[in-house]
Design goal:
The complex is a heterodimer. Chain A is of the alpha/beta class. Chain A has twelve helices and eight strands. Chain B has one domain. Classes of the chains: A alpha/beta, B mainly alpha. The structure holds adenosine-5'-triphosphate and magnesium ion (MG). The site of magnesium ion has 5 residues of chain A, from α1. Chain B: This is Cell division topological specificity factor.
Chain lengths: ~270, ~90
């Protein structure tokens, strides 16, 4: 039986889709059977981030409305046979699916996979509620910015109210240099503000842009610091203890850590 | 940890990250508890009033109220310095 994990955020554009694609790929690279579901109905994106946009025949709404069986709609990844995508509908709006239908769908996926990752739309409305209704666990992605953290705090409350437990946190797009200069909220600051468990820290990384351009996950890129961060998160999801980056607000610490793995960037 | 206190006591550095953090903490307290900075000031004045019935010279300006965030619960903590009334 799969673990169903929803990746959500509150504020848009903070990296939910990037996170879903990379964690899904990383988990499959490590041998798990993984389904990633795009629950952002009307704003389909996970397919292009994963480079699978040309293979779509049926989508999630087709399955829900009985035009296709789940198996027909699931798209196999190009490289990893154990990784599948269930695409969102592009031409429908987010009310096309009911919460009950989402639960039914996730339960169908549960039987066939080890992990089901759901890419949530931004916001706190129907689309978000649909995305978490079938979940066992919720991951909140935020960037270290005032508005993103504020919205994340709203989402923590809503996830708890929906009885999904306390969500865990991924802080994305950290810029160690800015943090060291005291010009960006540190991971420590964000954790203190939100008071939820940290699952991962992902640096801001140009490799995300290039890998997204190619439709290949950054976890394939040996030189990508963000890719390595996502691999670490996948290991943590598998129950491994992977040490965190040093969080104290000391000059150079985060930067030195990242410097171990990659070329330095200016 | 005493961020509300810091806010009223004046911050040490004013790098943009610490400004962001203090602003966020105020916003989150307001979002979660509907407690605005004005209301907090009023709360301190009223606390001083009540305490003055039992203790000499409690000054609302000296009261420091801080919010400590925890995983299960947040805590409101008040520090009330007492003047040595004997000397006055
Ligand atoms: N760690 C990172 N480093 C650099 N760029 C990043 C990083 N994470 C995300 N991005 C970029 O930020 C943009 C938004 O990312 P993404 O689409 O994953 O966000 P989202 O939360 O899914 O957005 P939406 O709310 O619109 O669904 C993309 O252009 C992506 O390439
Ligand atoms: Mg998205």
């Amino acid at each position: 039986m799969a673990r169903v994990i929803t990746i959500t955020s509150g504020k848009g554009g903070v990296g939910k889709t990037t996170t879903t694609a990379n964690l899904g790929t990383a988990l499959a690279m490590r041998g798990a059977r993984v389904a990633v579901m795009d629950a952002d109905i009307g704003l389909r994106n996970l397919d292009v981030v994963m480079g699978l946009e040309n293979r779509i025949v049926y989508d999630l709404v087709d399955v829900v409305e009985g035009r296709a069986r789940l198996r027909q709609a699931l798209i196999k990844d190009k490289r990893l046979p154990e990784l599948c995508l269930l695409p969102a509908a592009q031409t429908r709006d987010k009310d096309a699916v009911s919460p009950d239908q989402m639960v039914y769908l996730t339960n169908q996926l549960r039987t066939e996979f080890d992990f089901v990752l759901i890419d949530s739309p931004a916001g706190i409305e129907g689309g978000f509620r649909n995305a978490i209704v079938g979940a066992d666990e919720v991951i909140i992605v935020t960037t270290p910015e005032v508005s993103a953290v504020r919205d994340a705090d709203r989402i923590v409350g809503l996830v708890e109210a929906a009885e999904k437990g306390t969500p865990s946190l991924i802080v994305n797009r950290i810029k160690p240099r800015l943090v060291n200069r005291g010009e960006m909220l540190s991971v420590e600051d964000v954790i203190e503000l939100l008071a939820i468990n940290l699952l991962g820290i992902v640096p801001d990384d140009e490799a995300i842009v290039t890998s997204t351009n190619r439709g290949e996950a950054a976890v394939y890129d040996q030189h990508s610091l963000a890719g390595r961060a996502f691999l670490n998160i996948a290991r943590r999801l598998n129950g491994e203890e992977v040490p965190f980056l040093p969080l104290q607000d000391q000059p150079g610490v985060l930067e030195r850590f990242f410097g171990i793995f990659g070329r330095r960037r200016t | 940890m005493g961020f509300l206190g810091n806010l009223f006591g004046g911050g040490r550095r004013d790098r943009s990250a610490s400004v962001a953090k203090q602003r966020l903490m105020m916003v989150l307290v307001d979002d979660r508890y509907k407690l605005t900075p004005d209301m907090l000031e009023q709360m301190k004045i009223e606390m001083a009033e009540v305490l003055s019935r039992y203790l000499p010279h409690v000054d609302s300006d000296q009261i420091e109220v801080t919010l400590l965030r925890g995983e299960a619960n947040d805590h409101l903590k008040a520090e009330i310095p007492l003047k040595r009334g004997r000397d006055e």
